[in-house]
Design a protein that fits this description.
Helix content is about 35%, strand content about 25%. The protein has about 475 residues and is of the alpha/beta class. GO terms for molecular function: flavin adenine dinucleotide binding; NAD(P)H dehydrogenase (quinone) activity; oxidoreductase activity, acting on a sulfur group of donors, NAD(P) as acceptor.
C-alpha cells in the first residue's frame, strides 16, 4: 500500500446511484471517496439508458418519414446508420461532463479510478490505496447475463455493452430475449431498415400486463418485427455476418448479427465481499429494508441490491442512504411507487400493482377502470387510436396503473406522484390539465372511476331533483 485515506463515506461505483450519493454527501460536508474502475457515469450513461433512447429517437425520425399520413406521402427514408450512431455518441458526450471526474472533484469528492476490493469489514483497497471509512456504499451495478447455450461463446454476439460500436446496419438482427431492452432495440433497428427477429423462451414482455404487452407486440409486428415466443434455443453456431440459432423443436433462425438481451447479473466478483462480512446471492448483495447489508456499516444500492434495475430506482436508493449515513435518520424502502417503462412506440409503463398482482392480493375487492387512448382528443389529432390506461383502485386509492400508449412514460407521471403521496383519486379529478394533451388520460381514468357512482346512482338523481325544487 502506498497511501491510506480516512473518509466518512466510501462509494464503490460511479453510476447513477453512486454519483447521487457522492454529490449529496460531499455538498453537505462529508469526507467522500468515490472508487470507479471503469467509465464515470456507469452503465446508464455509457451503454444503457442514454444510448438506447438516443437510437430510438433516430429510429422514430425514420419511421415518421416512412409512415407518412395526414396528407403527407410516406416514403422509404434514406438512413445513415453510422450517423445515427454518431448521434448516440454525441448525446453521451453532451451528458458526460455532468458525471465526470472533474465535476465531482470540484464538489470535494476524492475520486480513485481503480477497481475496489474489500480487505476487511471497514477497509477497501483500490489502486494501491487503503481506504478506511465509517460507511461504505456498494453501487457497482450489473452486466449482461449470457445464457449457457451450447456454442454461444464461440459466436460473435452483441450485448448492450458492445452494440454501440456498430457503424454498419445489421442486415438481419437476431435478438435473444423479449424483455424491454430486446424489444426497444428490435423496433429501433427495424425502423432503421434492418430485418429483425426476436426470440424468447417464454412470452415477450412477459413481466408486464398481458393486455398492455399485446398492444405493444401488435404494433411491432405491424412494423415488420418477427417475434417468436416460447422457443428454446439449444445451440448457436456461425461467424460474423452468418449466425445460426437452433431450436429444440427443430426450427432454425439465421441472421447476420445476434444481440443477447436475456437479463442482467450483479457485479460482485471483484469486491471480495466475504472479507467484509457481506452476504450475497445470484441477485446481488442481500440487504434489509434500510438497504444495509449483513455488515451494518455497508449499504448496497441500485442494480447490485437486487431489487430492480432502473436508474431512477438507484437514485431513490441514494437518497435513502444519504439520509441514514449522514444524519442517522431512519429511512425505510418502499417499492410500490417505483415506475418502469418500456420505450417502444407505443410505450408501456407501469407503477404499483398490475391487475393480476392486485387480484392475487385483494381478490374482487378492487375496481379496474380502463380508458382507451382513442377517447383522448390529442391522441386522435396525432393519429393514435390503439392503447389504453388501466387504473386499479382499492378503497378510493390507486393500487397500480398500467399504460400502453404513445409517450406512456410521460403520461404515467401524475400517477407516480399520486401513489408515492398516497393521494385519493379525487386529487386527480380536481387537477386541471392543458387541453389537448395526452396527460388528460390520467384525469379521464380517475374520472371514469367516479362516473358510475355519480351518474348511475338513483339516490344522486333524487337528491339533485329535490335540491332543484328547494333552490330559489
Amino acid at each position: 500500500m502506498t497511501a491510506r485515506i480516512k473518509a466518512d463515506l466510501c462509494i464503490i461505483g460511479a453510476g447513477s446511484g453512486g454519483l447521487s450519493v457522492a454529490a449529496g454527501a460531499a455538498q453537505m460536508g462529508a469526507r467522500v471517496v468515490l472508487v470507479e474502475g471503469a467509465a464515470m457515469g456507469g452503465d446508464c450513461l455509457n451503454v444503457g439508458c442514454v444510448p438506447s433512447k438516443a437510437l430510438l429517437a433516430a429510429a422514430a425520425r425514420a419511421q415518421t418519414v416512412r409512415a407518412g399520413g395526414m396528407g403527407v406521402a410516406g416514403m422509404e427514408p434514406q438512413v445513415d446508420y453510422a450517423a445515427a450512431m454518431a448521434h448516440v455518441s454525441a448525446t453521451i458526450a453532451t451528458i458526460a461532463p455532468h458525471d465526470s471526474q472533474q465535476r465531482f472533484e470540484g464538489l470535494g469528492v476524492q475520486v480513485i479510478r481503480a477497481w475496489g476490493r474489500f480487505v476487511g469489514p471497514d477497509a477497501l483497497e483500490a489502486g494501491g490505496v487503503l481506504i478506511a471509512a465509517r460507511r461504505f456504499v456498494i453501487a457497482t451495478g450489473s452486466r449482461p447475463a449470457v445464457p449457457g447455450i451450447p456454442g454461444l461463446k464461440g459466436v460473435p454476439f452483441l450485448t448492450n455493452e458492445t452494440l454501440w460500436a456498430l457503424r454498419e446496419l445489421p442486415e438481419h438482427l437476431l435478438v435473444l430475449g423479449g424483455g424491454p431492452l430486446g424489444m426497444e432495440m428490435a423496433q429501433a433497428h427495424r425502423r432503421l431498415g434492418a430485418r429483425v427477429t426476436v426470440l424468447d423462451g417464454g412470452a415477450a414482455l412477459g413481466r408486464d400486463d398481458l393486455e398492455a404487452a399485446a398492444v405493444v407486440l401488435a404494433a411491432l409486428r405491424a412494423e415488420g418485427v418477427e417475434i417468436v415466443e416460447r422457443v428454446e434455443i439449444t445451440r448457436a453456431v456461425g461467424r460474423a455476418g452468418a449466425i445460426t440459432l437452433q431450436a429444440g423443436d427443430g426450427r432454425v433462425f439465421e441472421g447476420s448479427h445476434l444481440l443477447v438481451a436475456t437479463g442482467r447479473a450483479p457485479n460482485v466478483e471483484r469486491l471480495n465481499l466475504p472479507a467484509a462480512g457481506v452476504r450475497s446471492d445470484a441477485r446481488g448483495v442481500l440487504t434489509d429494508s434500510r438497504l444495509r447489508s449483513s455488515n451494518g456499516r455497508i449499504f448496497a444500492i441500485g442494480d447490485i441490491a437486487g431489487r430492480g434495475q432502473f436508474t431512477h430506482l438507484a437514485g431513490y436508493h441514494a437518497g435513502l442512504v444519504v439520509r441514514q449515513a449522514l444524519f442517522g435518520l431512519p429511512a425505510r424502502l418502499r417499492d410500490d411507487h417505483i415506475p418502469r417503462t418500456t420505450y417502444t412506440d407505443p410505450g408501456l409503463a407501469q407503477v404499483g400493482l398490475t391487475e393480476a398482482e392486485a387480484r392475487k392480493q385483494h381478490g374482487d375487492r378492487i375496481t379496474v377502470v380502463k380508458v382507451p387512448v382513442s377517447g383522448n382528443d390529442r391522441a386522435l389529432a396525432q393519429g393514435h387510436r390503439d392503447g389504453f390506461v388501466k387504473l386499479i383502485v382499492h378503497r378510493g386509492r390507486a393500487l397500480g396503473v398500467t399504460i400502453a400508449a404513445p409517450e406512456a412514460g410521460e403520461i404515467i407521471a401524475p400517477f407516480v406522484l399520486g401513489i408515492a403521496a398516497r393521494l385519493k383519486l379525487s386529487a386527480y379529478t380536481s387537477a386541471v390539465y392543458p387541453y389537448p394533451t395526452l396527460s388528460e388520460l390520467s384525469k379521464r381514468a380517475a374520472s371514469a372511476y367516479f362516473s358510475p357512482k355519480l351518474f348511475e346512482n338513483p339516490w344522486v338523481k333524487r337528491g339533485v331533483r329535490l335540491t332543484q325544487r328547494l333552490l330559489p
